[in-house]
């Protein structure tokens, strides 16, 4: 478990380029252990791409990603695999394997990690499903038979399968109605507290942000425009921050989210 004062994720001078387009320019960002950091920014500002960089799904054009204090590519293959097991990711739309049932989806990372004792796999899958408030009767369903909220919960169970210290969430409440969204936020908050997780999330949803985030990092024009507690971010003079946080609708959403927190 990463202790207080450490940074499970550090980006140092990170730049991302697709063809001739630079999406990120020299980004420095450290995510402190135990915090819930929300990445916000306009559409296409590079939030999802930054999450993908954090877990090595993309290579930076410049700079470095450090996970748990070490460069992503450091160490032997075994060391890299061991690092891989310390984080879980919830992709947009859940990204469940459509040909596998719920049980096999949640079991997937366990089997990949070499856990082949069937009794243990069974126990762990049902435990993870219970953690996301799903009963064993869901285990044999196929992803196409689940509601949007259930897909997110199963995807979260899969992300938590190997008991990660770090959880990355891409738009966790997108596509959920307000009640399901509030329920999912409560679940993530409870898990964050119970498991001592560090969380990085991308969200457009201010209710979700206000209810969950302990810090906010604002991406704009390829850079981190501001990074700190929400109250501090809201004092920054910038057109995006003005539009995103200070409209009447935003204020109402923030008030609702804070009431949930
Ligand atoms: N694999 C790729 N190849 C080429 N361009 C890409 C690729 N992935 C992302 N991009 C581009 O990088 C930019 C940032 O995309 P990204 O999905 O990270 O933005 P975002 O901030 O998450 O957007 P949104 O809020 O709309 O989901 C966009 O212009 C996108 O088209």
Molecular structure report:
The structure is a single chain. Helices cover 39% and strands 23% of the residues. It has 261 residues and is α/β, with parallel strands linked by helices. It has a domain at 98-155. A six-stranded mixed β-sheet has the order 6-7-8-3-9-10. β4 (62-67) and β5 form a beta hairpin. α6 (178-195) runs parallel beside α7 (206-212) and α9 (239-246) crosses α10. The radius of gyration is 18 Å and the shape is globular. The mean pLDDT is 89. Adenosine-5'-triphosphate binds at residues 18, 23, 41, 43-49. Keywords: ATP-binding, Cell membrane, Membrane, Nucleotide-binding, Transport. GO terms for molecular function: ATP binding.
Summarize the structure.
This is ABC transporter ATP-binding protein. With 261 residues, the chain is an alpha/beta fold.
Number of helices in the DSSP assignment:
10
The secondary-structure class comes to: alpha/beta
- The whole-angstrom Rg is 18 Å
Bound molecules: adenosine-5'-triphosphate
Largest sheet: 6 strands, mixed
Q: What is the element string, with H for helices and E for strands?
A: EEEHEEHEHHHEHEHEEHHH
Cα separation of the termini: 25 Å
Instruction: Report the principal-axis shape.
Output: globular
Q: In which range does the helix fraction lie?
A: 25-40%
Tally the beta strands: 10
Q: Classify the beta-strand content into a percent band.
A: 15-25%
Mean pLDDT: 89
Main β-sheet, spatial strand arrangement:
6-7-8-3-9-10
Instruction: Return residue spans where pLDDT drops below 50 for at least 5 consecutive residues.
Output: none
